[in-house]
Amino acid sequence: MSTYKKLIDKYEVNVYPKRDVVIVKGSGAKVWDENGKEYIDCTVGIGVATIGHCNPKVSEAIAEQSKTLITNPGIFYNDKRALMLEKLISISPKSLTKAFITNSGTEAVEAAIKFARITTGKTDFISAMRGFHGRTMGALSATHKEEYRTSFEPLVPGFTFVAFNKIDKLKEAITEKTAGIILEVVQGEGGINIGDKEYFDEVRKICDENKIILIIDEIQSGFCRTGKMFACEHFDIQPDIMTVAKAIAGGFPVGAAICSDKIDIPTGKHGSTFGGNPLGAAASIAAIDFMLENNLAKQAEEKGNYFVSKFDVDKLSKVRGIRNLGLMIGIELKEKVQPYLVELMEKGILAMPAGKTILRLLPPAVISYEDLDKVAEVLNDMLK
Q1: pLDDT tens digits, 230-285
Q2: Three-state SS for 8?
Q3: What is the pLDDT of residues 67-117, one digit of tens each?
Q4: Please, what sign has the CA dihedral across residues 328, 221, 17, 150?
Q5: Under a CB-based contact definition with an 8 Å cutoff, are residues 168 and 202 in contact?
Q6: Collapsing DSSP states into helix, strand and coil, what is residue 350?
Q7: Strand ranges inside the chain, DSSP E
Q8: In the list 233, 314, 361, 366, which could disulfide-bond 42, CB 3.0-4.6 Å?
Q9: How far apart are CA 371 and CA 223, in angstroms?
């Protein structure tokens, strides 16, 4: 048994179901294990490394900033934080004008919940069945999956779940206590379920009429993953708060709750020791610049459509259907997905589940067409 596996099994709190591999190096769309075996990585840190592993632009920015200033709390102004905020707002939906920087997606959702409550003076939230928003207590309260929730109940009170894309069900759930509605445009953990424009148009209208804060979770779908900088751009959704993380800094842990002028939170009511640190800000600036300079949104759209075109579902006896928006791809199987993930890994491809029967693929936007062809070939052979 690998020395590294032994050390992790001995010392790490065992919350993760482990794959039998030790990953030690990455570059672009590839990673390598401790024995030198190469894998095409269609997980990229669960959608994190959209610009590829060890992107040179980000690595250089982190190295340079680490020699200048690593930490600087929000009580002081900082050059890199200022430039990151300016860049983040410049690429966000026009309704969003300011941001609170965090270290992760779940922290961004926690901030959004607090901001919505203090802005509206109301307490309750509506989110969608099959939605996923994080693992901390507030974010978990907005997350539907029972197996994530049950062991930690009672959670934060006031959260109601309704069917996704069913506007009548959402209308029925609204009360005078509803502070916010929290939705993903594409449900990642829930199985790559894509929203409808008409649905989100109605949600926006309902929020305006009832003074409800619309929170759009772009943690997995943001930063070029779906063929737009943010998935909400497909439907021209204008959020009151948008939560982001994952791909924002090319692999460095950064997130944000990006807010409209509606959000009013007094000084001293929220904070973060590490949020907005210069190192993360420098990584974010470099990552976003790379996305823009290389038109990664267009690449994701074209490569996602190219990849899906390689499959004829009618000829794949083990497949119910394939859903995608850009490089956010879900293959729904007629049986459990786990054995296929193991077989894929044996054949040098890393993928992940989204529920028990969805095979989820989140390759980086920099992946080559040659690698996409290889993944499609292996999957077609496995699933026919």
Answers
A1: 999 999 999 999 999 999 999 999 999 999 999 999 999 999 999 999 999 999 99
A2: helix
A3: 999 999 999 999 999 999 999 999 999 999 999 999 999 999 999 999 999
A4: negative
A5: no
A6: strand
A7: 23-27, 30-33, 38-41, 98-102, 124-128, 159-162, 178-184, 186-187, 193-194, 213-217, 241-244, 255-259, 319-325, 328-333, 349-350, 352-353, 358-361
A8: 361
A9: 22
Look up the pTM and report it.
0.97
Tokens linked to 320: 């119910």
Which residue, chain included where needed, has tokens 């095409």? 40
The position carrying tokens 């207590």 is 137
CATH of domain 3-55+295-383: 3.90.1150.10
Q: Whole-angstrom Cα distance, residue 215 to residue 126?
A: 10
In CATH, what number does 57-293 get?
A: 3.40.640.10
What is the per-residue burial (b if ≥16 Cβ within 10 Å, else e) of 290-308? bbeeeebbebbbbbbeebb
Where exactly does CATH 3.40.640.10 map onto the chain?
57-293
Within the chain, all domains assigned CATH 3.90.1150.10 are found at 3-55+295-383
Distance from the first to the final alpha carbon of the chain? 35
271 and 339 in contact (C-beta within 8 Å)?
A: no
Do you find a cis peptide bond into 154, omega within 30 degrees of 0? Answer: yes
Q: What number of CA atoms fall less than 13 Å from residue 316's CA on the CB side?
A: 22
